[in-house]
Structure formats: structure tokens, C-alpha cells
Design goal:
heterodimer, A: 117 residues, mainly beta, 4-stranded antiparallel beta sheet, B: 4-stranded antiparallel beta sheet
């Protein structure tokens, strides 16, 4: 079974600075997908970024980018120019690719990010 | 476009009561899932469905039932509520395994 580990329960960043959130995972599969989700106080789960394991290029979405290290099974999220609205809980998630029966997402326990003005 | 909708948003039950959490999506997605979120535990999969008429168990299925008679709806039934089922419940859907899941707004359930 796949596992996702987010070892830092909390992090803090100064507004306008850059912060990196760590995530590692364990799998024996070669083809899979990785996601970062944001959960603000409203409770809504919002997709931040998505990475396909077969792609070597790191995904980027505006101020959000990932550092995907497949051999190390590491998938960190970098937030540049942090804004107050980035304060939320962030979840790293893994999804198997090859079979519809394994289409479930496996989540890490999350990290709470606070942004200091 | 409503996306994924869940009702109710809040619910209080007494131990032993039964109820159904409703979930619907209007995106014609094949895949639907139910998760529960507990403090310090992340989201854990309860049940999921890969299409109408097909469901399977996730990580924490005990005490819950599901069915999928239509593509749009995926209700979650609590058979006999227990305090351990106090949690926030999320329904999610996606086009296929290759795509991100879209989440509903969640239901906060308290069992006393």
C-alpha cells in the first residue's frame, strides 16, 4: 500500500517570502500522480498543483511550483511571494495510475501554513 | 455549474441513529469517493465508486454503506451512528484516475 508522509505539522512564513513544504511517499509503482491540495478555514479542498510521475519537468502554477524527485520519492511544494491568503492547511496526495480499481487518493496528514504580515 | 454538492452541511445525531449524507455531481464524472477528515489524520477514504453500479471499500469502511445507482449521485449511509463517527465528511469526484478530484464543501457530523 502507498503511504504519504508530511513530517512537518506546522510552518510559518513572512509575507512576500518563499516557503517550501515537504512531502515524501512510498510506492512500488512506476506510474502515478501526485497532488497538492489547499484547505483554507472555509474547509473547501482546492487543488493547487498536479504532477505526473512520467514527466521529468516540474509542474508550475503561477507562484506555486514543485520539486519532484522520483528516485528519492520526494514531492515538495514551493510557494513564492507568499500572501496572507496562502495561510491554510496543505495536503500532499498520491494516486495510482494503472487501474481504475486503484483510483483512490492517499493523503498525507497535512501541514498548517501560517503567513506573518 | 454546481460541481460537487453535499447535504447537509451540519448534522447532529444521537448514538444509534441512522442517516444518509447526500452527494451529487453534475460533471458526468465516473469516479466518486467519500472521505472522512479527523484532526491529525488527514483525509481517509471510506468508500469509492468507479461507475454506476460499482462500489468498493476504502481504508475505513466499517459502519458505512454506499450505493451508486446513477452517475450523478453517491450517498453515504451511516447504519447506526457512533461517537467515533464524529468527523467532517467529504465527497469527491473525478473524470478518471488521471485527473484531480473535485471536492464538495463537506458535512460536519457530530454524534453524541
Amino acid at each position: 500500500a502507498q503511504t504519504v508522509t508530511q513530517s512537518q505539522p506546522e510552518m510559518s512564513v513572512q509575507e512576500a517570502e518563499t516557503v517550501t513544504l515537504s512531502c515524501t511517499y512510498d510506492t512500488s509503482e512506476s506510474d502515478y500522480y501526485l497532488f497538492w491540495y489547499k484547505q483554507p478555514p472555509s474547509r473547501q479542498m482546492i487543488l493547487v498543483i498536479r504532477q505526473e510521475a512520467y514527466k521529468q519537468q516540474n509542474a508550475t502554477e503561477n507562484r506555486f511550483s514543485v520539486n519532484f524527485q522520483k528516485a528519492a520519492k520526494s514531492f515538495s511544494l514551493k510557494i513564492s511571494d507568499s500572501q496572507l491568503g496562502d495561510a491554510a492547511m496543505y495536503f500532499c496526495a498520491y494516486r495510482s495510475a494503472p487501474s481504475g480499481a486503484n483510483s483512490k487518493l492517499t493523503f498525507g496528514k497535512g501541514i498548517t501554513l501560517s503567513v506573518r504580515p | 455549474n454546481a460541481g460537487v454538492t453535499q447535504t447537509p452541511k451540519f448534522q447532529v445525531l444521537k448514538t444509534g441513529q441512522s442517516m444518509t449524507l447526500q452527494c451529487a455531481q453534475d460533471m458526468n464524472h465516473e469516479y466518486m469517493s467519500w472521505y472522512r477528515q479527523d484532526p491529525g489524520m488527514g483525509l481517509r477514504l471510506i468508500h469509492y465508486s468507479v461507475g454506476a453500479g460499482i462500489t468498493d471499500q476504502g481504508e475505513v469502511p466499517n459502519g458505512y454503506n454506499v450505493s451508486r445507482s446513477t452517475t450523478e449521485d453517491f450517498p453515504l449511509r451511516l447504519l447506526s451512528a457512533a461517537p467515533s463517527q464524529t468527523s467532517v465528511y467529504f465527497c469527491a469526484s473525478s473524470r478518471s484516475f488521471a485527473y484531480e478530484q473535485y471536492f464538495g464543501p463537506g458535512t460536519r457530523l457530530t454524534v453524541t
